[in-house]
Task: structure prediction
Amino acid sequence: MQLTKEQQKMLDGEAGEAPAQAMQILAALGKIYGAENMIPISSAQVSGVSYETIGDAGLEYLQDYASKNAKVKTLTFLNPAGMDRDQYEKMDVPSDFAKKQIQILDAFKSMGITMSCTCAPYHIGIRPKVGEHIAWAESSAVAFANSVLGARTNREGGPSALAAAITGFTPNYGLHLDENRLAGIIIEVEATPKTTADFGAMGSYLGKKIKSKIPAFTNLNFAPEIKLKTLGASMAATGSTALFYIKNITPEFMVKENAEKLTFTQEELIYHKKELNCGEKPDLVTIGCPHASLEEIKEVANLIKGKKLACKLWVCCAKKTKDLASEHGFTKIIEEAGGNVVADTCMVVSPLRQMGYSCTACNSGKAAKYLSSLQKQKVVFGDVEDILLCD
Result:
């Protein structure tokens, strides 16, 4: 791999210990994947933020970087943490968990990282342009950036995204290259998905079916941005989709000549939507995986205005989005009904079991996958109006 003088100096330690460590990671990745060079990035998104997912080993890794005076060289922001920094006591987050989580966030902050703590940075104005090279790690954000925005990023791990942030570069391989962005399978949609849960169920099924192939959808005429984030997130969770196309909707649509074909029917949609639902009464209802937009928070507020919820509710979003929701009065409506607008975290990376939850409701295919596999929850799945249980 050809390195520039600047990159070689970093690798040789002339820019400091932290950049050298970061460049070693990137050089190793470049060698593994056959990258010819490195390219500059305009932003990085770092995952591995919750203490629930990285534990003490991850905390030590980050504190080691911080002790070496690591500083990011480009716009860098974080995936959700394991708790809402402003109301974790109200949410009954265990104190020992909170202490470790704060230490993780302090380590990231010392590196100059924006403490956004969201899996949907595009909802708070971070929207790279078509063809722009970035290094993002959160699977749903990667799918959205590549597909809906037309930017270019591989599905980075937390350490490689952090390394890219510290150096300002990433190896030039994978989805950064035109030849690797061709769809290998065409999905002919005969179903009529309308709701977030519909798109989540469709994505969950297709992710398992196509695995790492890049899909190109046809006949999918109704696909607003909010539904696209759900579709991509669900395929990324059950498979490893980092890029998808939708004819006449996404900014790019590139398909191999010999692409396979797969049909997705209305009957399959109905079946797989039911398959995700255990049918029990939840302890907790969760909305916002990926993080909710202001429009989605408004929808919840309108559905429960003047009512009382029968169980706890989290509407998860970025702190900036919550501030807007509060300005519009949506937060107050949700709180008066007994719910909570939760910032900085989500149901997938919170210590749900330690907090006493065993059955959680969602309208997200991604959440359904990880609630059962990572959080060992029974999952109640359905449209938002169906899972919002009111007395």
Observations:
- Residues 189 and 264 are 5 Å apart (CA to CA).
- The chain has 14 helices and 14 strands.
- Residues 182-273 form one domain.
- The chain has three domains: 5-177, 182-273, 279-387.
